[in-house]
Design brief:
The chain is α+β, with helices and mostly antiparallel strands and 194 residues long. The protein has three helices and eleven strands; from the N terminus they run E-E-E-H-E-H-E-E-E-E-H-E-E-E. The strands form two sheets. Strands 1, 2, 3, 4, 7, 8, 9, 10 and 11 form a nine-stranded mixed β-sheet that branches. A two-stranded antiparallel ribbon has the order 5-6. The chain is globular.
Length: 194
């Protein structure tokens, strides 16, 4: 049977199991052999990360052809408005091409969200806003580049969902194992031999 783990990756943690200098990595939080990230989260991003030992499942989660939505809460610098959300939703032109259409909306600051350590920089004269963005692609630092393009630099980025998997009440650094989805065509997955 395959394994699937939901982890709340903390801020400033490498999205890999091997150490790079003094920076914390996944093995500081998940002591499970032979699981690997299905996708990535930048070191300065937080939230839901899926780990599995099943290569096919890993591919289904990460391949854009499967159109698995990834939902993020994004704190941005400045006053977000409907024009910015419309521009984000239609797609913006980045150096590596036009982004696919996505969902973008203004949301209230989440009351349940844990404080980030270290805290996000605060400037008294510059307001901040929160957006919820759902992507179905995953370019390098895509949301940060998209919000910057519409004049709203990202201050904090928290992934809260990947497809039907939700971050839920996992605190930073906590994880739980869930049943993996059935393989396409109803086949039962077998764990790869170590």
């Amino acid at each position: 049977m395959s394994r699937l783990i939901l982890l709340n990756k903390p801020f400033d943690v490498l999205c890999q199991f091997s150490r790079d200098g003094d920076r914390p990595c996944l093995k500081d939080f998940v002591d499970v052999a032979s699981v690997y990230p299905a996708g990535r989260l930048d070191t300065d991003s937080e939230g839901l990360l899926l780990l599995t030992d099943d290569g096919r499942l890993q591919h289904r989660i990460t391949d854009p052809r499967h159109k698995l939505g990834k939902t993020y809460l994004v704190q941005v610098e400045g006053e977000a408005d409907e024009a910015a959300c419309t521009a984000l939703a239609r797609g913006v032109l980045l150096r590596d091409g036009m982004t696919r259409p996505c969902r973008a909306s203004i949301v209230a600051q989440p009351e349940w969200l844990w404080p980030r350590m270290p805290p996000v920089r605060f400037r008294q004269r510059i307001p901040t806003s929160w957006l919820q963005i759902e992507l179905r692609e995953g370019r390098n630092r895509q949301i940060r580049r998209m919000t910057a393009k519409v004049g709203l630099p990202t201050l904090r980025l928290v992934r809260v969902a990947i497809g039907s998997w939700r971050l839920g009440d996992l605190a930073p650094g906590q994880w739980r194992e869930v049943a993996p989805p059935p393989a396409p065509g109803g086949r039962t997955r077998r764990r790869r031999a170590a």
